[in-house]
From TrEMBL:
Entry-linked PANTHER family: FARNESYL DIPHOSPHATE SYNTHASE
Protein name according to UniProt: Isopentenyl pyrophosphate isomerase
Organism: Halostagnicola larsenii XH-48
Keyword Coiled coil on entry: no
Annotated signal sequence range: none
GO MF term set: isomerase activity; metal ion binding; prenyltransferase activity
Keywords: Isomerase, Isoprene biosynthesis, Magnesium, Metal-binding, Transferase
Length: 280
């Protein structure tokens, strides 16, 4: 765990630097509320661990990791507006704290700072741009053409959540100057972890206690969102089995990668287990 804490500290330190450098102060304050109010930092940790797994250094990947966290935070700001959710990570969501206009500007600011970090490498910019296209298609599908069966749900989960996870891992591989096969293998690993994460998230929304989860529950049913328990006949236990299957395929993909740092790889393996067992 010491390795993870050191890596997380690198992310937090750089994140604070980016936020503190924003102007005007109003925007900096709003971005600070969104980005520094908690969060597991799963995606930037994937970026750093993927980089180290294939022989890079953690410091090589920190900017890309912070960038993908900013992109993720921007997407959450918009999600909370769409869902009318007033709570995020145990505190008020951006729109509930500042209003809809400032929240949208905050999301734009987050994306701008993220792409400033990615601009150091055209391949990084391309990877994230592609993930945002997928995310946009997923969000639009969720609002206008909801899935009605398991296959359609899985496509939505891949776009809505898996795409950013894929980008996170591919950014790490790019930071380590990996070959295309390695970039793709790490991307597949992370995409499947992301899908497993989303399935488990849906199950928790349907079954967990809001105080334990740190955000409101029952939103999927109330808003008729296409969660795995809303659009399929799967029970929560069966849905968890689907998440497990995705995690297992993620582990298989990771097994095709020539790992230089086996400790970092082992943490990626643990993440694949964590996303299907987490309780919040």
């Amino acid at each position: 765990m010491e390795l993870l804490e050191r890596r997380r500290a690198l992310v937090e330190e750089r994140l604070v630097e980016v936020v503190d450098g924003l102007d005007p102060e109003t925007l900096s304050s709003e971005v600070r509320h969104v980005t520094l109010s908690g969060g597991k930092r799963v995606r930037p940790m994937v970026t750093i661990l993927a980089c180290e797994t294939v022989g890079g250094e953690a410091t090589d990947a920190v900017d890309f990791g912070v960038g993908i966290e900013l992109v993720h935070s921007a997407s959450l700001v918009v999600d909370d507006i769409i869902d009318r959710s007033e709570l995020r990570r145990g505190t008020t969501s951006a729109w509930a704290e500042f209003g809809h206009g400032p929240a949208i500007i905050t999301s734009d600011g987050l994306l701008g700072e993220a792409f400033a970090l990615f601009s150091a490498d055209p391949k990084a910019t391309q990877v994230v741009a592609e993930s945002l296209v997928e995310l946009g298609v997923g969000e639009a599908t969720e609002l206008s053409s909801k899935p009605s069966n398991e296959a359609e749900y899985m496509t939505l989960a891949r776009r809505k959540t898996g795409a950013l996870f894929r980008a996170a891992a591919e950014l790490g591989a790019i930071a380590a100057d990996s070959d295309p096969f390695t970039v793709e293998a790490l991307g597949e690993y992370a995409e499947r972890v992301g899908v497993a994460f989303q399935i488990r998230d849906d199950v928790l929304d349907a079954t967990a206690d809001a105080a334990d989860l740190g955000k409101p529950t029952g939103h999927d049913a109330t808003l008729e969102r296409p969660s795995v328990v809303q659009v399929t006949d799967l029970t929560p236990a069966e849905a968890n089995d689907r998440a497990r299957a995705q995690a297992d395929r993620a582990i298989d993909a990771l097994g095709t990668v020539d790992a230089v740092d086996t400790e970092a790889r082992d943490y990626l393996l643990e993440l694949a287990e964590f996303v299907v067992e987490r309780e919040r």
